[in-house]
Task: structure prediction
Amino acid sequence: MTDIERVDALDKVTGRALYVYDLKFPGMLYAALVKSTVPHGIIKKVDPSRALAREGVEAVITGSQLSHVRAGIYIQDRTPMAAEKVRYLGEPVAAVLARDLRSAREAAEMVEVDYHELSAVVDPREALREGAPLVHEKLQEYHRYQEIKPLPNSNVANVFRLRKGDAQSILQRSDLVVEDTYTEAMISHAYMEPMSVIAWWNPDGTLELWTSAQSPFAVRNLLSKALELSESRIVVHVPYVGGGFGGKAGLHLELLVALLSKAVGGRPVKLTLSREDNFYVAPSKVGVSAEGKVGLSKEGKILALMVNYLVDAGAYADYAVNVGKTMGYIGAGPYDVPNVWIDSTTVYTNKPFATAFRGFGILEAHWVVERLLETASRKLGVDPVQFRLMNRLRPGSTTSTGQRITEGSGDLAKCLQVAADMVGWGSRKSSSHPTYVGRGVALAMKGPSVPPYNSAQAYLKFNEDGTLDVSVGTTEIGQGTMTSIVQLVAEEFGIQPNKVRVDLVKDTSRSAYTWQTVGSRSLFYDGNAVLAAVDDAKSQIRRIASKVFNVEEEEISIGGGKVFVKGGSRALDLKDVVMGYVTANGNVIGSPVVGRGSFVVPDLTYLDSQGQGNPFPVITFGAQSVEVEVDVLTGVVKVNKYVGVFDLGRVVNRGLAMDQLVGGAVMAISLALNESIKFDEGGAILNPNLVDYKVAEIGDVNDNLIGVFLENPDPKGPRGARGIGENALLGIPAAIGNAIYDAIGVSVRDLPITPERLWREIRAQRPELLEV
Amino acid sequence: MSLLPNFKLELPTDLKEAISELAGGNVVIAAGATRVLLMSYMHILRPEVVVSIRRIGLREIKVSDELEVEANVTLSAVARNERVRKEFPLVAASASHVADPLVRNKATVVGNVVNAVPYSSMVPAFLLMDGKAKVVGPSGPREISAKDFFVGPLETAQRPDELVTSLTFRRVEGEWGFTEFRTDSQLPIINVGVLRNKKGKVRVAYTGLTAMPNLLDLGTMPSDFRGGYREVRNILQDLSTQVLDDLRSSAEYRLHLASVLTARLLEGMGR
Ligand SMILES: Cc1cc2nc3c(=O)[nH]c(=O)nc-3n(C[C@H](O)[C@H](O)[C@H](O)COP(=O)(O)OP(=O)(O)OC[C@H]3O[C@@H](n4cnc5c(N)ncnc54)[C@H](O)[C@@H]3O)c2cc1C
Result:
């Protein structure tokens, strides 16, 4: 297929694209948050009097005024703002509404709050201890999904278990057992656009919202439950979104802003977070620590894997419990391991809370599994590439949840061979003290982490001139799916892409439905739905044309913007058919064409109590390799080269796929080497800004980032395609860790691998390298 | 979106007017304003009056037997000036290592030095090249030598009602080196400048090692890495109790880095 230009490009480069922050409505009030100054404490008093006296202020709403409403996607553990107690430093306790933003912000500083401070628990391991301060005392009373099982009188939000075979006893009988522990920092999505929401109630009781969210229909669904309002009474608009990376999935500030608007008689209210507030109030990525154990035969076959994950959710469970679960059920990932034992425990701490992040737990698990297996292969003396080839999943084998891999799942072995060859695996390395070169590989495997029932709709309607408007539910958050949708439709009808318009901004009352814009599912689900809509439209067109030409429907072909009889010379312009064909005498054959399509994968299952089942609608396999250069005296790691090889089934738009690969690589290199939200002992963030929270910039990453796409079609994919969005990151941190080991024989276990941290590891593991 | 605190902005058009604006009250001078705005957005700085000096001229780079950089000269201007690059390469190199092009196009050399922050990249050159700050206040002009300019952490010797009109850097013959080092922050944790004069005597200056800049005479130094590292390490041991320990780096790592980076510069110059 030939690439087309991004359909959102011109709006974005000309500044014409509107984001929620750009929108303004008559009589709109601006909200500012009053944030907790203690990590854990009872709210004794909120005194808004000074703030209320300030010019421009219309109202101060406290958390306790809104405490009748509860939210939380898996566990309803939070209210729109803290009501009785605060559970993290920076948690909103009140909101000031004023006629302008400055008045709101300044008045927010004038609201006085008294706390009775409680002891706080910041470290997730501490949170597990008997007698640790409880973040939620009434955990067992919260409404929740059946599958999520909080432990009463504890900080445990959920324990996910996966048991395949009998890992415990096999480990005792293995020739070699390798154990290690790993950690991964809480990090920020660092999307460009901080969260922003406007809510406005119509006089008829309809709630209209404009929000920088990934998943408008999830916002609507969760709001409907929280507000006990029907979905048809909620209209969620999502204009352009400045990045999400999982951080804007689900329901976030929308509920609060809806209630603030309601509290002032339905006037429009806008809340936009500053970057600093976004670090505190908007959720981040979970922190992880893990203990892994792998048992092998002396020939190098993996016999059993055991991992115990501890997932730090912060003060509220949000998506973290499901991230923890997914981290668990990916199990041994792309490896064929007969015996797998995973426990993944998600705990509460007194820190800002966490949510989904590009890779959704599977990213985190790759760091653990790929580092552990690397260590094991090195201990055995088996070449890490051969080791991976030997133990990989292949057609006929099953994943850790027992899902079967087929011929249509892609060619994992080829991915690895290409990634290894292209990074120069096995060829000479030019190290000279103090600079050492090393190479590392990792496999990558992920499918969308979605409930089985998740689905998508699409529709397309023809216009009088034969052009058409297409609607899908996915939002354009920078990933480019809308462009691929246009490309698919244009190709199907053989018309110029500029004749196909897609709804770039969403309105839940008009746009086709999709479950969420998450999980690398968009092209797979919405693409399939759109192709179904195309088929539907085509059959309508064929029906009309068959009557015009007086032939069977099967004899009609559509292409090149024309409708014609196969093998014949008779043809009609699409535009003369799609609104109904008008005969010479004025009669009309057919009527205007509207194509409808939808998509669901019918045979997915929930996981059973042993973590077994078929969770993935599609799986994308890949392999990633890097060459690094380590300066042992400073601990600085440079990635000289990266190669990502993915079996995408079918590449719809090569440029966009490559953008995902490169963007994902930069993101993964950045988080592997730099990124962590740093907390002090009192739960305050020490780097809530982009100066001391370091995100890779253009000069920080080498542009030697190479992507290779294999195209073994997936029988279920749209034109055979699979997703790439999150997969682009998965193996990179581990490949870097593996390459560091290859270079200097030092094993890194903790992310991020900052220079000081690596220098300390070198000093502990290979002090002779530091001798000068 | 962050909001700036309210303040009055003064835009004087000559030096005299600027000086008179400085009298009294909570007044802050802004040149490139990169730090003034950042600190204000973070509400760490809440000035009543900001006096922008952008319209008072003072945009020249004067090269004679010394280099004089006036108050409104940006880091970019110094970094790309041909004569500065040729004749005062340490100054040009230091300027070109600050932040990114966007910041360098606004930020001034004077602002960078007056900032006196532990991560300042220009201060080592200022110290090594026997710099002087020319200052004008209500009672007229005066000069402060670089050695006397830094009086405390984040504190410099000009009074609040005085404006630094230019900085001078003495021409020095010999070899030079400069490097900065960043880890997981945009800001360097340490900057190192070295000079070796014709007689082979070495001076080194650091920012980021301790709360105040350091200027050390090292005498003759070996030019191999190993020898350099060991000597520097010994000499710096005296400072070890004062070394900064913060979010960006532990004291131990900083001290180690200072020795490694200095020895690398010395080795590089020797080649
Ligand atoms: C993202 C980022 C990265 C950075 N990285 C680096 C780096 O790598 N290395 C580094 O050294 N710095 C770095 N900085 C700091 C930057 O270099 C300084 O902020 C800048 O040089 C200050 O110059 P300015 O003209 O903008 O000063 P301003 O912000 O205008 O002023 C700075 C201070 O000096 C005072 N001042 C300015 N001019 C005068 C004058 N003529 N007389 C008296 N007082 C005056 C001001 O009152 C203020 O206190 C970074 C800054 C940012 C935002």
Q: What stands out?
A: The domain at 284-450+606-770 of chain A is CATH 3.30.365.10 (Aldehyde Oxidoreductase; domain 4). The pocket of flavin-adenine dinucleotide is lined by residues A 691; B 28-36, 38, 53, 71, 98-99, 103, 106-108, 110-112, 114-115, 119-121, 158, 163-164, 186-188 (CB under 6 Å).
